[in-house]
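Please, structure for the following, as tokens.
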Amino acid sequence: MYNTAFIATSCQPALLVKYLESYLSDLERWLSEWRIVINVLKHSARLFANAGRRIPKPRPTELFREPIQWVVTARYLGATINKRLPWSTHIDQVRKKAAHRLGELALLDSRSSLFIWNGVLLYKQLICPMMNYECHVWRPAACSHIRKMQALHSKCLCIATIDPWYIGNRQIHNDLGVPYFNDHIRSLRYSTES
């Protein structure tokens, strides 16, 4: 597993790097005390900034005398995070993985004898969790990214139900009782808050 130190630049980047170095020295001491060995090559660091703010390249930092890489994009718990948190990179990767899995489901084509509800069940079990993963985090993404996810969501349902092209997405969603992707994400968020 790759670990990444994320630093938000609300103050001077040089000062933040100094704080990071102080933390790394404490971490090094703690790891040595508890005899825990880590692979420094699998760790990276990333600075975040507000839109329009330029970040100078930070000086190298070290842990156990090995350099920690400063990266442009990083993966953390399955989410791809980049400089200003637009979530476009992460959503594109999720869409590619979901489309790839949809392509693997050769059962869902027009020649299939699979019942509609079985196709919908396959979608809900194999593709929907992939699209929903960490949606609480990237929910504030731009509307254009959410619309891309909605387009893939509708396409998957259309393929799962083997509907012709002239049937509207709204009708497919209403017939199956499946909410639109944006509404689904919102309901997931509110269900975890209560």
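The mean pLDDT is 81. Residues 87-193 form one domain.
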